[in-house]
Amino acid sequence: MQKLIEGHRKFLAEVFPAKKSRFRLLAEGQSPQWLFITCADSRVLPDLILGTEPGDLFIARSIGNVVPVTSHDVDGVTATIEYAVEVLKVPHIIVCGHSDCGALKAAIDRKRLESLPKARRWLDHVGAAFAHKQPLNPADGESAELAALIRGNVVAQLGNLRAQPAVEQALAEHRLTVHGWYYDILTGRIEEYDEAAEKFANLGS
Ligand SMILES: [Zn+2]
User: Fold this and answer.
1) What mean pLDDT comes out for the span 195-204?
2) 94 neighbors 49 (Cβ within 8 angstroms)
């Protein structure tokens, strides 16, 4: 725990004073422009890789960056999506998968989930990734199969996202855009899914 305590001391001594005016505004409310749906993985740091600041990103995280198919069950991700769209009125939602994702490794090798009843049920939602598996990219080397499936999961979850009632309505009213991203930990690069071309390309290219 010492690392965290020291980190917080440093934040209070250095970071907070430098951003004090921003925190004063944020103390009274937020108006984030992006809902960022990503994996719980410790290697995915949205603010670090996107240059965003406190107040910028509304974030929903879970293993496998899952958007559950609409059902009568309540879960943290779909509740967060509903709040972001209906209350915060975010104009963009991004679903961001990442390289070396353990959730997709488990989808390939279900034995990994035998003793994890809750994770197993949650990761049933990534099963659709197989139907959307992307072409192999030689640049991914030995991880090409896994990376193609992770990209497929982004496409699958994007479909689930569009089917959320709040999202469906906001899209129909042209007040929302949805995006599918793949973040590569080794290179630091982000790819964006082009729905018209049905393929991933470097973000901003
Ligand atoms: Zn992951």
Assistant:
1) 95
2) no
Q: What angle do CA 65, 91, 78 make, to 5 degrees?
A: 35
Ligand 1 centroid, distance to 87 Cα (angstroms): 28
Tell me the CA–centroid distance for residue 40 and ligand 1, in Å: 6
Q: How far apart are CA 96 and CA 109, in angstroms?
A: 22
Tokens of 51: 């240059």
CA of 66 to the centre of ligand 1 (A): 10
Q: What is the pLDDT of residue 69?
A: 84
> Taking CA 20 as the corner, what is the angle to CA 16 and CA 22, rounded to the nearest 5 degrees?
115
Nearest CA to 57 among 79, 78, 80?
80
- Token representation of residue 119: 């994770």
Q: Indicate the pTM of the whole model.
A: 0.95
C-alpha 94 chain-centroid distance: 6
| Neighbouring residues of 87: CB distance < 8 A, sequence distance ≥ 6 | none
Query: Using 50, 70 and 90 to split pLDDT, how confident is the model at 48?
Result: very high
